[in-house]
């Protein structure tokens, strides 16, 4: 087990393949089974009242698991989300960044599963949890 | 069983409480247990290659079930998503609108559950499915 | 699109590979994208008060999607469940059979997805819904 | 935050309200936000080949979260599962017990959410994960 990409290579690669969203996220930490990602909350992520929207939390969780998978298997921009489950448990604090702590639960030949807990910055009560399954296409030879 | 709001009242209300997203969606049909909503696909909903992004499909499904619940219980902007499950089954066609067909499975005193199938316009093979649970706060008196 | 097995062949096959549970279920109808299966409710499926237990409804939904996949791809006893989401919406009626209506949403090369609505016999209000994903192992040659 | 029941009181109570299944499970550890429960694997939990069945893992996860909720709110046998998501990630080892590590993510006034990782005894690779939502009925006064 080892990483195929460093934190910096990963951010560069996300910027290349997802120019639309790479500015939304920062990677705080990366290891072989964990990544910590932050949503750089901006006006476009908010609902009235200043709380982060559900779709923005979905995007954060999805991107965290994608980054985790890429960090292990290398540049496979074609890995696609096949399943997601989410629980929204608390209202996020107004106008704060959201921290996602992702753990890789399985990295198989064709399927990868990651678990994500999300927190308003400064709180240790989770605002949401998510599990994402990615399908990894076979390597072309 | 009857509707608390018409299709037009519903669109007006969504525009009022969610000005950020109301332009993204149109309601095609509304009845006591079904709503058909369309994602008015624009550049901001796309991934490289022109397919609609996962977070945009999440937003569509979430908004469809929210509209369905509102149409039944009336103006309760505080109803919140507590759980979501999604399966992404096919790649959406490039640069097309997405049609969401939502069915209300349960409308209880405190929880509502809706099921959503999503299709690329012109196709009858679902690109994704979603189930959303909404928590309905008790009426204030 | 056509069926690889008839209803009778399917029941025989389930009895062969799952002798422990084949007596729990009956197949009422089978077509290319739908199967209707019934839980032959017995004491071992009940909770105090006489309602069907959650694990029994999970088993019913899981078996319905498995039967649907088998009916299409043929005898592949190794197909395995990789993901499940369920919503329990109403208390099943006491001491009744449960009818599961399964629809095949996707049958890909490696993944199949089926949706299931479950009803107490005689009612048209769903007691539960489930989605199951099956992983289909590559054919050995 | 404190426990409303000890590990022994909890086991006694489960034996009282769920006589059918209480023999299937043992509680190894209990604290304010975690419970470790074990499936005492017997013939009735197995599939051909000796691996623990999906419904048995569902029952284990469901019972672990139920026990966690009861341990906090006290004897509320009426708390009911409203939602479940599960990922089956690895084949359980043959003929072994399954250990479930449950964490309470939310204990609200009406909804509780718990996360469960399951392992074949002796392994640290999860065979499955589950999230369960319980609805807690209002106290009668």
Largest sheet features of chain A: 6 strands, antiparallel
The class by helix and strand makeup of chain A works out as alpha+beta
Q: CATH topology of chain A, what is it called?
A: Thiol Ester Dehydrase, Chain A
**CATH second-level architecture of chain A:** Roll
The chain pair forming the largest interface, with residue counts per chain, is:
A-B, 26 and 26 residues
Description:
By secondary structure, chain A is an alpha+beta fold. Chain A has a single domain, classed as Hotdog Thioesterase (Thiol Ester Dehydrase, Chain A). The first copy, chain A, contains two helices and six strands. Chain A has a six-stranded antiparallel β-sheet, with helices on one face. In chain A, strand 5 and strand 6 form a beta hairpin. At the A-B interface, helix 2 and strand 3 of A face helix 2 and strand 3 of B. Strand 3 of chain C pairs antiparallel with strand 3 of chain D, so a sheet runs across the interface.
